[in-house]
Amino acid sequence: MLLEVKNIHKSYGSTEILHGISFSVQSGRAMGFLGRNGAGKSTTIRCMMDVFRPNSGEFLLDGKPFKTEDYRIGYLPEERGMYSKNKVLSQLVYFARLRGGGKEESIKSAKEWISFFELDEYANKPLETLSKGNQQKIQIAQAFVNDPDILILDEPFSGLDPINAQLFKDVISEFVSRGKLLIFSSHQMNYVEEVCDDICLIHQGNILLTGSLDNIKRNMGEGKMLLETENMDSKATTEMLCAAFPDMECELYNDALILDTKGKYSQNQLLEFILDKSLNIVRFGMYTPNLNDIFISLAGGDTK
Questions:
Q1: Residue 278 pLDDT class (50, 70, 90 cuts)
Q2: Which of 112, 113, 129, 166 has its CA 20 to 30 A from that of 282?
Q3: What is the dihedral sign for C-alpha 258, 263, 268, 274?
Q4: Distance CA 302, CA 40 (A)
């Protein structure tokens, strides 16, 4: 499946929130939808889900108008919306039925997900009796019941401990590997980097970049190199390198140096020089920025 977002405009009153945004999501490739608070992520998703109507533009799935009622869509909103007083199993079945499942199928799927998260003892208890982390597992389960075709997850890792976060990452990977379509929105860049194949960055209602995460990181690296040595004296190393390679720029990056050769020197030339100086190399190779660095450089500010 190929979901295309084409030239979507959305206004509230006289204020335009989305300024003609376009991007696409391919099934079998997890897509991270990123942006600062207020960037337009939730508005885009709500327009996609037909909660809001865009002023103009269209959503297409495999070249045809996307109608939410024609597909099973799992949705985990950032504002969690389950019922604290209702029993866990009954409301999972309720959400599964809303998604078009039959009674028996919905009960079976709900029980499977409760068991998957090892919460069988809470199946017939009100949601409010569960810990915050276990409530989050049930919120996640409701997005997966009845094996949706399309999954939209907004801040899904919130409240999960490291063990359950890893479990959830495995579930997402398995879902995507079956050719399903996944949109994953989060401010936790490390999870996006681990889970997603593609990203789309929205800022102030405009798309700043979209495409393969690996390609974006490679391009944003701009051909620079990364060097880290044991017990590195960054000032002395910088002076030594810049004296040997005029016009090269060195920038301190955590415990390493980013080397910008301006295309004048090869990786092999640098490596020969470093080995000749008997520096003990910890890391040396092409520099690729992490997603957090990319986010800050393009959207500015803190990602927290």
A1: confident
A2: 166
A3: negative
A4: 17
Strands (E), 129-248: 150-154, 181-185, 198-203, 206-212, 225-229
Q: pLDDT class for 302, splitting at 50, 70, 90?
A: very low
Q: Is residue 160 within 8 Å of 191, Cβ to Cβ? A: no
Helix (H) or strand (E) holding 172, with range, is: helix 162-177
Q: Are 106 and 85 in contact (CB under 8 A)?
A: no
Tell me which DSSP letter residue 144 carries.
Answer: H
What letter would DSSP give residue 155?
S
CA-to-CA distance for 206 and 148, rounded, in angstroms? Answer: 29
Can you list the alpha helix ranges (DSSP code H) found in 23-131?
Answer: 41-48, 88-98, 103-116
Q: What distance in Å separates the CA atoms of residue 23 and residue 4, rounded to the nearest whole number?
A: 6
Distance CA 118, CA 154 (A): 23
- For 60-111, write each residue's pLDDT tens digit: 999 999 998 899 899 888 766 788 889 999 999 998 998 888 999 999 999 9
CATH number of the structural domain 2-71+149-215? 3.40.50.300
Global pTM reads 0.82
Distance CA 246, CA 119 (A): 63
Tell me the Cα Rg of the chain: 24
Distance, in Å, from the CA atom of 173 to the CA atom of 154, rounded to the nearest integer, reads: 16
Is there a contact between 30 and 86 (Cβ–Cβ < 8 Å)?
no
- Which helix or strand (DSSP H or E) is residue 5 part of? strand 2-12
What is the rounded distance in angstroms from the CA atom of residue 304 to the CA atom of residue 301? Answer: 9
Name the DSSP letter for residue 38. Answer: T
